[in-house]
Fold this sequence. Notes:
Blueprint: H1 5-17, E1 26-28, H2 31-39, E2 53-55, H3 56-64, H4 69-80, H5 83-96, H6 119-132, H7 134-137, E3 144-147, E4 150-153, H8 158-161, E5 165-173, E6 177-186, E7 189-198, H9 201-218, E8 219-225, E9 230-232, E10 236-237, E11 246-247, E12 252-257, E13 264-270, E14 274-275, E15 283-291, E16 294-303, H10 312-323
Parallel strand pairs: 10-14
Antiparallel strand pairs: 1-2, 3-4, 5-6, 6-7, 8-12, 9-11, 11-16, 13-15, 15-16
Amino acid sequence: ASITKLMTAYIVFEALAEKRLALTDTVRVSEYAWRTGGAVTDGSTSFLELGSMVPVEDLIKGMIVQSGNDATIALAEKIGGTESGFVQIMNSYSQRLGLKGTRWTNSWGGPAPDHYSTARDIATLSSVLIHKFPEYYKYYSMREFTWNKHTQQNRNGLLARDPSVDGIKTGHTESAKYCLVSSAKRNGMRLVSVVLGSPSIRAREDASATLLNYGFTFYETVKLQDAGKPVITPRVFKGTAESVAVGSPRAISITIARGQGGSLTKEAKVNTPLVAPLALNARVGEYVVKNGDEVVARVPLVTLAKVEEGGLWRTTVDTVKLWFE
């Protein structure tokens, strides 16, 4: 159902981040967007007028807060040329994100035999959307939006029930029933819950709240490493420096069952030997975290400083040493 609009939003946010689209750009509402988006069909609508020019930011708000099918299709046509062209982009992005149980046939969530996803895939998509586009995620906590003199409330009832909830998206069709993807942040820890196929609005909210409360009660997020801090300082051959600090480009945190922090093992693996010249942020290894035998995190390790190639003497001496490595 309208959970589909999470993927549409992801692609819109990507276009904004890459400067291929701007919030102030205006989009003409086509007849297809107008008709399919609620003017003729009995679906969620932002009440866009046929042929009107609407700013991208207002279309985003209409898509997210009002779940407007017309606003969604207008954005899809702006980026993909046609909705079918946009659907190809949706499926391409799904492959990049590893959403193996997902296939899209439209941008707005209309029922179709080949239009489907899984709770795990939706959770993965939601998590990436939240972390990659924090400046745009704010729209999901908006409680209402007005367009063309029509004020509509956000359909996510958890926004009113739980102050820690700040998104994400509802959905409903006769075949998909009532769906809700929600996210909450408490004490610096964020969780996402996905509920699909519920019999009622209240049921999807209660199930989502139960999942979130369970997660916050029985799990914790453990910070293992700050971004840009040295994890290991391996030797460098043929360089102006004999070693280089290596660390993670981002902070390393994992969410595990409470009390299991003591069972974590961490290993920094560097692709040795390291030979200069080495650029700043060159990937040279991997940081692996295990909980027992299970790998719970793999993070690339990069150089935290640049190492220039050394002089003739250093290069010659280290060439000999490398013979014995």
